[in-house]
Fold this sequence. Notes:
By secondary structure, the chain is mainly α. It has 8 helices and no strands.
Amino acid sequence: MTTTNARTESRLPNPVQFVPELDDIGGALFKATANGSVPRTTISLVQLRAGQIVGSDYLTARHTGGLRRAGEAEERVAAVASWQGASLFTDAERAALALVDAVLTANSAGERVSDQLYAQASAHYDDKALTTLVLAISQVCFFVPLALIGKPLPGVSAKDQWRQ
């Protein structure tokens, strides 16, 4: 017997109706990461990778779609899941992807962001850009609980997304 899990709405109603500040928080985080110190493509690659790591269909689809709409090559979008072995990313992008992997993946051998990884990232990004990368990871991570608990539907507009 085959079962389908075809949902037509998220688990939660629109969280903004209960916490209207979410719009302001999301807007402020977007503005902070759009300060020009890190290319928008890099931020989107990092956020796509975060969605993949935490296993969120919604975040993965959202950031994949954003990269595609921005004209990013399909090969690069698809390669984010296996970026370590892909030659499609610049050294700076690879350092940013390594940071998000380190932050979101447990390391039983010790600290997640080693001095070596920090040095690698700081070789490509100045202090403002590194802070912006931290905020880009924070931005997507801020919404991870809503994505995993609320299960918004990938590809559905924000207004049509939430349970009525």
